[in-house]
Amino acid sequence: MKKESLRQVFLRKRLALPPEEVAWAGERVAELFFSLPAYRQAKTLLLYCAFRQEVPTKRIISASLAEGKLVALPATSREKKEITARLIKVYPDDLVPGPGGIPEPRPTCPSVPPEEIDLVAVPGLVFDLKGYRLGYGWGCYDRFLSRSPALRVGLAYDFQVVEDVGAEPHDQRLHFLITPSRIYRFDEVEVWEKRS
Ligand SMILES: Nc1nc2c(c(=O)[nH]1)N(C=O)[C@@H](CNc1ccc(C(=O)N[C@@H](CCC(=O)O)C(=O)O)cc1)CN2
Ligand SMILES: Nc1ncnc2c1ncn2[C@@H]1O[C@H](COP(=O)(O)OP(=O)(O)OP(=O)(O)O)[C@@H](O)[C@H]1O
């Protein structure tokens, strides 16, 4: 299947999920996320604000702030198709609607360079068994991740995992993918562990 039709199919499937399933997935994924040793060690996280039935991240954001971690969320530039990680202190008060209506940090929130982030929670429409993913097609995350040494953790529903998304050379691989039923660990983790 071509990239664009894959995106359409998986976006439609996600939008059709019943609210109970969305909420349950958020609880399970958060629990597994908190169990990662890399989460416990991380000082600075780039999380994201879930929208349009993405796996809910509210608990992950609140718990990370409560534990005293530095929590950044992406602020998106429509022109540059680029994300900037900006630190928030109070959730959701520090957020305003951004492109596509996704809540994002106010422009006055301080930015953090990609080099200083320890762990990135990565959204996506469909993920594969090699650690590749398809997002909305702006390449925002691929560009950001190519500049960051952070551990990359995808968050998804089980139905969003397929064998192969047809990765291209610019696509950045994940280290982990968390779904309600399991944690996928990709080969790249070993490379990351040696580096850090
Ligand atoms: N929760 C969440 N936050 C995220 C992302 C994500 O995938 N999920 N992003 C992942 O990259 C970035 C935002 N990416 C965006 C990509 C496209 C449009 C957008 O408005 N696109 C179309 C309309 C899309 C539609 O409504 O169907 C437009 O240009 O108008 C907005 C944000 C950063 N924040
Ligand atoms: N590191 C990069 N440097 C420059 N351009 C890039 C980079 N990564 C991706 N791009 C460009 O971004 C565009 C979109 O990429 P792609 O279709 O892989 O997006 P995606 O993975 O679905 O989106 P996202 O990463 O925002 O979730 C591509 O045309 C690609 O050329």
TrEMBL record:
**What reaction is this protein's catalytic activity?**
(6S)-5-formyl-5,6,7,8-tetrahydrofolate + ATP = (6R)-5,10-methenyltetrahydrofolate + ADP + phosphate
Residues holding ATP: K3, E4, S5, L6, R7, R133, L134, G135, Y136, G137, W138, G139, C140, Y141
Does the keyword field hold Cell inner membrane?
Answer: no
Keywords noted in UniProt: ATP-binding, Ligase, Magnesium, Metal-binding, Nucleotide-binding
Which Gene3D superfamilies would you find in this protein's record?
NagB/RpiA/CoA transferase-like
MF-aspect GO terms: 5-formyltetrahydrofolate cyclo-ligase activity; ATP binding; metal ion binding
List, separated by semicolons, the cofactors it needs: Mg(2+)
Q: What is its EC number?
A: 6.3.3.2
The GO annotation for biological process reads: folic acid-containing compound biosynthetic process; tetrahydrofolate interconversion
Q: Which family does it belong to?
A: Belongs to the 5-formyltetrahydrofolate cyclo-ligase family.
What is this protein's name? 5-formyltetrahydrofolate cyclo-ligase
| Organism in which the protein naturally occurs | Ammonifex thiophilus
